[in-house]
Amino acid sequence: MITEQNYRSIGWTATRLARHVELALATIDLSTAQYRMLLQLAQGDEASTSLARKLAVSAPSVTAVVDGFVSRGAIARTHSEEDRRRVSLALTPVGRALLAEAEAVVSARLEGIANELESEAAIRAALSSLDLWAKALEKARARRVALRENPVEVSPR
Fold first, then answer.
1. pLDDT at 121 over 90
2. What angle do CA 120, 124, 129 make, to 5 degrees?
């Protein structure tokens, strides 16, 4: 049963925001999985197995998404000179343009929702809170990576 309390919960709000991201991406024929892949590849070339681990999906799932992007000209596959079995994935200019378009439609959608608030200060606060969440998520990711590399407990503070 949805009550006023859980309707305003962080989880509920995050889910609703995620749905609006999905709807924005759908306007340019992009899924959230595809968007996440573009974002990850924008940080640098990746091997499929490494990309699958970072996105927490199976290697066959990555291959299926990559195949679609390769056919669209958004991702290039390059074989390693040292080990021809190793294939590196990289964004092409088409892929970078698609990511820029995705960023624009997502930003426009979320800014449009924020503009429903009563004041400029509230609008800025809503949008700034996303920046704070980005910083928190990045710190949490760095801590998880550090724990994987050094299994001795790493304190969150």
1. yes
2. 150
Torsion of the alpha carbons at 116, 119, 120 and 124, rounded to the nearest 10: -70
**Amino acid at position 33, single letter:** A
Amino acid, single-letter form, for residue 44: G
In this structure, what token pair is assigned to residue 40? 């990850």
Cβ burial of 99 (10 Å; 0-12, 13-18, 19+) is buried
Nearest Cα to 38, choosing from 68, 59, 15? 68
Q: Which of 138, 137, 139, 113 is nearest to 126 (CA)?
A: 113
Does CATH number 1.10.10.10 belong to domain 4-116?
Answer: yes
Query: What pLDDT score does 5 carry?
Result: 60
CA-closest candidate to residue 99, choices 40, 51, 147: 40
Where do you find CATH 1.10.10.10 in the chain?
Answer: 4-116
| Residue type (1 letter), 21 | V
User: Considering the entire predicted model, what is its pTM?
Assistant: 0.81
Residue 153 has pLDDT above 60, yes or no: no
Take residue 42 and report the two structure tokens written for it. Answer: 């924008």
- Helix, strand, coil percent content, the chain, rounded in steps of 5: 70, 10, 25
